[in-house]
């Protein structure tokens, strides 16, 4: 099938194929995807399209595309379920040297949001405005959260430091 013939075939079959896909999918966007993928396969295999029964061949391709999509969706669902039921790997915060162990323990004791904020600011050297853009919030909010996170970090550091009177 040459390009002009395929264009005519596409025009003649598009609406029926889209309706076919729409009746078998949850949303119009899904039907759009099925229709597009079906015509992409048809374009790649245009030499295999039979002269007689081209419409039925196209609907057969659409059925296969739908089956593939359903299999992929089920696979993705099983993967999401598996990920959701497994414990996340522990965050490895290993001190680069023993002298910094107190800081690392204090960082590990923080909640993940506080730790992420502090590390973005200290390690990644992001400005408050850049962090605000990253989190889609205001710079004032980030500044306030950073202040509170630093205060919580200081509290953890204070509890980790031995007091002078404890040594005596």
UniProtKB/TrEMBL annotation:
<dbReference type="GO" id="GO:0016987">
    <property type="term" value="F:sigma factor activity"/>
</dbReference>
<dbReference type="InterPro" id="IPR036388">
    <property type="entry name" value="WH-like_DNA-bd_sf"/>
</dbReference>
<dbReference type="Pfam" id="PF08281">
    <property type="entry name" value="Sigma70_r4_2"/>
</dbReference>
<feature type="domain" description="RNA polymerase sigma-70 region 2">
    <location>
        <begin position="16"/>
        <end position="76"/>
    </location>
</feature>
<keyword id="KW-0805">Transcription regulation</keyword>
<dbReference type="GO" id="GO:0006352">
    <property type="term" value="P:DNA-templated transcription initiation"/>
</dbReference>
<dbReference type="Pfam" id="PF04542">
    <property type="entry name" value="Sigma70_r2"/>
</dbReference>
<keyword id="KW-0731">Sigma factor</keyword>
<dbReference type="InterPro" id="IPR007627">
    <property type="entry name" value="RNA_pol_sigma70_r2"/>
</dbReference>
<dbReference type="InterPro" id="IPR039425">
    <property type="entry name" value="RNA_pol_sigma-70-like"/>
</dbReference>
<comment type="similarity">
    <text>Belongs to the sigma-70 factor family. ECF subfamily.</text>
</comment>
<dbReference type="InterPro" id="IPR014284">
    <property type="entry name" value="RNA_pol_sigma-70_dom"/>
</dbReference>
<keyword id="KW-0804">Transcription</keyword>
<protein>
    <submittedName>
        <fullName>DNA-directed RNA polymerase sigma-70 factor</fullName>
    </submittedName>
</protein>
<dbReference type="GO" id="GO:0003677">
    <property type="term" value="F:DNA binding"/>
</dbReference>
<dbReference type="InterPro" id="IPR013249">
    <property type="entry name" value="RNA_pol_sigma70_r4_t2"/>
</dbReference>
<dbReference type="InterPro" id="IPR013325">
    <property type="entry name" value="RNA_pol_sigma_r2"/>
</dbReference>
<feature type="domain" description="RNA polymerase sigma factor 70 region 4 type 2">
    <location>
        <begin position="103"/>
        <end position="153"/>
    </location>
</feature>
<dbReference type="InterPro" id="IPR013324">
    <property type="entry name" value="RNA_pol_sigma_r3/r4-like"/>
</dbReference>
<keyword id="KW-0238">DNA-binding</keyword>
<keyword id="KW-0240">DNA-directed RNA polymerase</keyword>
<dbReference type="GO" id="GO:0000428">
    <property type="term" value="C:DNA-directed RNA polymerase complex"/>
</dbReference>
């Amino acid at each position: 099938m040459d390009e002009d013939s395929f264009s005519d075939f596409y025009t003649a079959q598009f609406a029926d194929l889209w309706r076919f896909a729409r009746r078998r999918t949850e949303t119009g966007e899904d039907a759009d995807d099925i229709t597009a993928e079906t015509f992409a396969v048809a374009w790649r295999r245009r030499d295999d399209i039979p002269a007689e029964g081209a419409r039925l061949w196209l609907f057969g391709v659409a059925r296969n595309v739908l089956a593939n999509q359903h299999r992929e969706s089920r696979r993705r669902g099983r993967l999401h379920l598996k990920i959701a039921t497994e414990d996340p790997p522990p965050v490895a915060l290993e001190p680069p040297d023993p002298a910094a162990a107190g800081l690392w323990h204090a960082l590990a004791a923080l909640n993940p949001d506080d730790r992420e904020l502090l590390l973005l600011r200290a390690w990644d050297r992001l400005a408050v405005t850049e962090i605000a853009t990253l989190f889609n919030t205001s710079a004032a909010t980030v500044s306030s959260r950073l202040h509170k996170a630093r205060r919580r970090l200081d509290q953890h550091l204070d509890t980790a430091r031995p007091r002078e009177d404890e040594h005596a």
